């Protein structure tokens, strides 16, 4: 074999090794993104936001007041029901006094007692409606988004803002059927993303039982139009991730998918 032919063979082998190495280094793993189960805080009744106590990105604790909605109608309703209660109390006191002296009937006392209880219940309802004009944090977390600001009308049961509790962060990624037997609920997986910590992991808590086509948000040309299974996992460090952030997932922290294939 001539030296020139040997040189050509060595060059070809070297090129093949380089191409193989590049292919392994570029293996994206299983692609997915970061999501979170938000907690939405909304008023029971429509009204105008009069005060907003937080901004997007603020940390809140359970019970902290987040916003207030105008309460003129609720306050008027409470005042009216209090007046009705005062009249019902007078009627009850008069019927009770007459019953004790024998001048009144039991029917009148029963009617007055019933009217008093109804009036008390309406006052309690009005007080609850008034108290709920302020929105309080049901959980601790970060204000993710504000939908209505001071001066804007918010419809009934439409969220004024959303809270993201740290424990509600999750990763969604998709794997083909051939890789599904390698995964189980409770398994740890390695997670990588731009500027993420090298030791970021997640624990699988959900594996879909039915296949679906790779969603459009997965940008890899190799993964499009494939039937895949949805996997969800809880990250070990939710504080370093952001909702909507693209990620790559490998089978476990020690052995990337590229080495198993």
Mean model confidence by pLDDT: 83
From N to C, what is the helix and strand string? HEEEEEHHEEEEEEEEEEH
Uncertain ranges: 6-11, 255-261
Strand order of the largest sheet: 1-10-14-12-11-15
Structural class: alpha+beta
What would the principal axes of the Cα set say about the shape?
A: elongated
Enumerate how many helices there are, as a single number: 4
Q: What summary fits the major beta sheet?
A: 6 strands, antiparallel, barrel
Helicity, in percent?
25-40%
Total strand segments: 15
**What fraction of residues sit in β-strands?**
25-35%
Search tags:
alpha+beta, 4-stranded antiparallel β-sheet, elongated, 28% strand, 261 residues, disordered C terminus, 6-stranded antiparallel β-barrel
What does this structure look like?
With 261 residues, this protein is α+β, with helices and mostly antiparallel strands. Helix content is 32%, strand content 28%. The chain contains 4 helices and 15 strands. It has a 6-stranded antiparallel barrel with strand order 1-10-14-12-11-15. A hairpin with an 8-residue loop joins strand 11 and strand 12 (201-207). Helix 2 (72-101) runs antiparallel to helix 3. The two termini are 36 Å apart.
Question: Can you lay out the helices and strands and say which pair or pack?
Answer:
Elements (H helix, E strand, L loop, with lengths): L2 H23 L4 E7 L2 E3 L5 E6 L6 E2 L4 E5 L2 H30 L4 H26 L2 E3 L4 E6 L6 E2 L6 E4 L4 E8 L11 E5 L8 E7 L4 E2 L13 E9 L10 E5 L6 H4 L1
Antiparallel strand pairs: 1-10, 1-15, 2-9, 3-5, 3-8, 4-7, 5-6, 7-9, 10-14, 11-12, 11-15, 12-14, 13-14
Helix pairs in contact: 2-3
């Amino acid at each position: 074999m001539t030296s020139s032919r040997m040189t050509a063979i060595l060059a070809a082998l070297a090129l093949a090794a380089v191409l193989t190495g590049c292919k392994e280094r570029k293996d994206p793993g299983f692609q997915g993104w970061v999501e979170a189960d938000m907690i939405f805080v909304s008023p029971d009744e429509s009204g105008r936001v009069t005060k907003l106590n937080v901004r997007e990105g603020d940390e809140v604790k359970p019970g902290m007041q987040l916003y207030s909605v105008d309460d003129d109608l609720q306050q008027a309703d409470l005042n009216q029901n209090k007046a009705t209660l005062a009249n019902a109390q007078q009627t009850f006191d008069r019927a009770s006094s007459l019953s004790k002296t024998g001048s009144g009937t039991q029917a009148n006392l029963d009617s007055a007692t019933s009217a008093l209880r109804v009036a008390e219940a309406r006052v309690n309802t009005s007080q609850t409606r008034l108290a709920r004009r302020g929105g309080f944090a049901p959980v601790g977390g970060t204000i993710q988004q504000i939908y209505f600001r001071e001066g804007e009308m918010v419809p009934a049961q439409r969220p004024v803002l959303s809270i993201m509790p740290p424990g509600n962060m999750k990763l969604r990624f998709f794997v083909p059927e051939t890789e599904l037997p390698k995964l189980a609920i409770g398994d740890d997986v390695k997670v990588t993303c731009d500027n993420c910590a090298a030791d970021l992991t997640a624990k699988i808590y959900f594996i879909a039982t039915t296949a679906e086509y790779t969603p459009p948000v997965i940008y890899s040309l190799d993964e499009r139009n494939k039937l895949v299974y949805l996997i969800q996992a809880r990250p070990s460090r939710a504080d370093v991730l952001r909702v909507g952030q693209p990620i790559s997932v490998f089978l476990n922290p020690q052995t990337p998918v590229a080495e198993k294939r």
